[in-house]
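yo

u said u wanted the structure for the complex thing, so here. seqs first:
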Amino acid sequence: MSSVSIRQIRKSFAGLTVLDSVDMEIAPGEFVVILGSSGCGKSTLLNVIAGLDDCDSGQILIGDVDVSHLEPSQRGLAMVFQSYALFPAMTVRRNLSFGMEIAGTPKATIAEKVAWAARLLQIEALLDRKPSQLSGGQRQRVAIGRALVRSSSICLFDEPLSNLDAKLRAETRVELKQLHETLKSTMIYVTHDQIEAMTMADRVAVMHKGKVEQFAEPQTVYEKPASLFVAGFIGSPAMNFLKGTLEGTLRFKTHDVCLDASSYGFAAGPTAAEVILGIRCEDVDVVERGTPDSIPATLAFTELLGADALGWFDCLGQRFSVKLTVDAARAMQRDVGFRFNMSKASFFLAATERRL
Amino acid sequence: MRAWLHRQSFKPDVTVAVFFGVVTIFFYGSILWTFYMSMTRSTLMPSYELIGFDQYVKLFTNYRWLVSCMNMVIFGVLFIIGTLCFGALLAIFADRRIQAESLFRTIFLYPLAVSLIVTGLSWRWVLDPVNGLQGLMRSAGWESFTFDWLTNPDRAIYTLVIASIWHSTGLVMVIILAGLRGVDNDLWRAIRMEGVPLWRAYLQVIFPGMRPVIASCVVLLMSEVIRGYDLVIAMTKGGPGIATEMPAKFAVDFYFARVNLGLASAASIVMLLISLVMLTPYFYSEFRKRI
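structre next:
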């Protein structure tokens, strides 16, 4: 178990800034997921931590040691790759032991560790097979095994589940989480899949354009997104947005509607400003048209999802999604009104797109 | 005619049928005819009286044929190993992103554009003891310099190896380089994470993972070994003595110079069998996976 400190990491490729002053403090034994869409710099950040890419400036500390200038193999890290990257001509056993062989580990220790990892991952029966004879899920286990036998205190994952089918992905997700609880090692996990991030992470770092937009617990990221990007990126369907102005008297004004925003927990006191109101689909109540303090909305269509349903409405020129019960969706009128649960809403300053 | 063709629904079949006809008659037909000839006592003109496998018995008691086969084995083993080693080495250098890679690739591929006859001729001049490298060094003042492999019966076969390695290395380099470029970047990252030294990475991880590519190279080179005729003609003409005789040259000599159609046909059929025996493992390993 070691902590990882990422300090002021900058990196650019040919004039394009890939990482822009990234700071992150990861506690020992923490499971951190770095989440972002492709091209946001999350994989580059992981490569910089691993030492596979150089950064232009900044420091990486593992424990208290500055490893910024060490070779990847000297940093005491293990890594699992998206395409597994198993050594193709070697048996599974050899794949697990090869790194230790290179490092000059005694034979008895190697055998012991291989046996331990194989038992833990339930790949004992596969030890004498070649990677080409394994299924995708089995290959991923072997790749994880190869990372485990390095017995490093920090394990890096680069989208390890992306190449698996949906069912296997869900199973492996649970297994990885259990593995983390057994080993208690620090894990840094890169993914673009927000479900993986929400379910596995102790803390999620949402990245956008080379910057960490928010680094917090998954539920916080969902309920109190720090920026407009995070709000739009996390959650499916995406958060609903309305532009408007905030008036000093705790009222949100948009078009000719005025809403009471006094139940909203402002971080630094309300200010009169141009703002964007964000509200999740489950925080919208559908009421009868004309109810006081409601916004008129028109039903476009409904989607039945089995357990519940989604209603899609047009409201002040915006498309809104609202979570409904199946019965409510079936009986939905065309002309309705919305009432927002303001204590769960988010206000973003229009100019900076940061949370108020 | 065109209108008729337009009305037909089996146009592709017609094209393919013509192609198959040509192949069948000129390729397999020739093989069958050669096999038939090897069972006869034909000399200058074909004779059609079957005498069984007498020509094969004669062939394998012929000292010159046995020397040819031995030469082919020596030449083949050294040539294939040498070409693979040099080609792989150059491919690794090119893959390590050296400066002006495309220039070097062109330079190394260039010999392939030179025909084997010209290759042989050039190397004969270079290795000629009187006018070539040895003469040059001696005239430059190094009187004791000796490099007379070309005229040394024990060494002449190695000059063929040198010349053909020079000729084929570029091709192998390009094929292996293409294979190296196809290696998954994650695999390289895994190698760096494990701290595998570069030479072990290539020998134990990268090349073993490129087995089909290397097998293709070996097959290409093998076919060059079995066909080996033009280089011998241009460089040594089989000499000194019969020191650099090759089966293909043996067959051609007996067909045309010594007008012994039967024996030459037997030699050809044996060469065909050798090719089949050498290529079978390749086809077996390649096609087994598909089924």
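The CA atoms of residues 154 and 249 of chain B lie 19 Å apart. Chain B has a mean pLDDT of 83.
cya
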